[in-house]
Amino acid sequence: MIDFGSQSRQRLGRFAPFLVRSPRFGNLGYVKISVPFSIQQDFVKSSRAELEILRTSIENELEKHPLPMFARHEIAGRQPGPHLLITGGVHGDEFEPMAAIRQLMSLVNAEELRGRVTLVPVVNEPAFRLGQRAAEDGRDLARTCPGRADGSITEQIAFQLSELIRSADLYIDLHTGGTRLMVLPLSGYTLHANAEVLAQQRKMARAFGLPIIWGTDPNLNGRSLSVARDANVPAIYTEYEGGGRISVEGVWAYIQGCLNVMYEFGLLAGQPILPHDPPLIVEDDRQGAGHMQINHPAPCEGFFNAAVTLGQEVQADQVLGTIVDSLGQREETIRARYAGLVIVLHTFPRVEAGVSVAVILES
Ligand SMILES: [Zn+2]
Q1: Phi, psi (rounded to 5 degrees) for 339
Q2: Span 119-137, pLDDT tens digits
Q3: Which of 87, 147, 238, 277 is 20 to 30 Å from 155 by CA-CA measure?
Q4: Does any domain span residue 291?
């Protein structure tokens, strides 16, 4: 547990650094202990005992007050009101949410706020550092909730995110298509069994102001919205393009959308500013509806050539695209299973077998 260092460190003389290690929490840091030039056996023994006590007390503290897995910004209003949680970066390669939430940190004024707003620009910091959807353990955070306090890095983040969601009265989880997908701007929610929660979710999605509103299967698990569902916290998620770049319009739409929800629920005085055109509202409670990763899966890996564009209306059986191998010897065609609107398109040319190349919102 305790690294007493090498002989050479012992020869350092006064204030030699010792690394305190915990089997549960890893390296807890260095402590400097005054060491005489010639180390006696007794000194080593007593120091070992002291460091053991120190390690136990640090572990106990960490148990009671775990280190936060992600940075959060709290704005507490002067007046009482609901607690709104807004998160971005559940996936590390989705950038509009991060930029929008960072700007909301300075746009929301505590003097004018009723209630409390918790802003988390990047939930999945290790994934963001990699510039990827998931952290180094390869787990998708949006399939890992409610996680585990002593699990892998993603499980620990999921655990703390889930605790935070349960503490909220309203929850908005901002997403995009990430590096590989493009998604039409939409607000989604679960078709919650509790009529009151469902009504609040519909109200949030409408106030957010994106052109498509999508209510889906409430029985999907592992997501941030599944935690909100189980805790009866009204929640929506949103999507806005993606494709590995950042859309300025998307950042502004997200800032306006979050402010709109604050107006609608009385956290800020004012009315939501909504687009002129009414939204397209689709509610689909079939099993798996809303699960973007299983819609029109690639039959094999290879190079994907899309034959449709994002936002296009397609007919049943229309060709969505082809996948060819590197030599062009094998070609597979993917056809629309039903007519509707292409709301998600795989824009990254390389696809793996089984990933969704397109999602069609059935018309
Ligand atoms: Zn996402």
Answers
A1: -80, 150
A2: 999 999 999 999 999 999 9
A3: 238
A4: no
Tell me the average pLDDT across 143-150. 94
Determine the distance separating the centroid of ligand 1 and the alpha carbon of 238, expressed in angstroms. 9
**Which protein residues have their CB within 5 A of the ion that is ligand 1?**
91, 175
Residue of 253, 298, 283, 299 whose CA lies nearest to 361 = 283
Q: How far is the centre of ligand 1, averaged over its atoms, from the C-alpha of 175 (Å)? A: 4
Give me the domain span that covers residue 356: 296-362
Pair (328, 222) in one structural domain: no
Whether 78 contacts 109, CB under 8 Å: no
Strands 302-306 and 350-351, how do they pair? Answer: antiparallel
> Do residues 230 and 83 share a domain?
yes
Same domain, 57 and 104: no
Q: How far is the CA of 239 from the centre of ligand 1 (A)?
A: 8
Q: How would residue 176 be classed by pLDDT, with cut points 50, 70 and 90?
A: very high
pLDDT band at 8 (very low <50, low <70, confident <90, very high): very low
The domain total for the chain is 3
Q: State CA 5 to chain mean position distance.
A: 40
Q: Does the structure show a pLDDT above 60 at 203?
A: yes
Q: With respect to residue 290, please indicate whether it lies within any of the assigned structural domains.
A: no
Asked if residue 160 is part of any domain, the answer here is yes
CA of 251 to the centre of ligand 1 (A): 15
Q: What's the gap in Å between 312 CA and the centre of ligand 1?
A: 22
Give me ligand 1 centre to Cα 146, in Å: 16
Asked if 69 contacts 145 with a C-beta cutoff of 8 angstroms, the reply is: no
DSSP string, 143-210: GTTT--TTS-HHHHHHHHHHHHHHT-SEEEEE---TTTEEE--EEEEE--SSHHHHHHHHHHHHHHT-
Examine residue 128 and state whether it is found in any structural domain, yes or no. yes
Average pLDDT score, the chain: 90
For residue 1, the CA-to-ligand 1 centroid distance in Å is 39
CA of 91 to the centre of ligand 1 (A): 5
Query: In which element (H, E) is residue 38 found?
Result: none
218 & 317 share domain: no
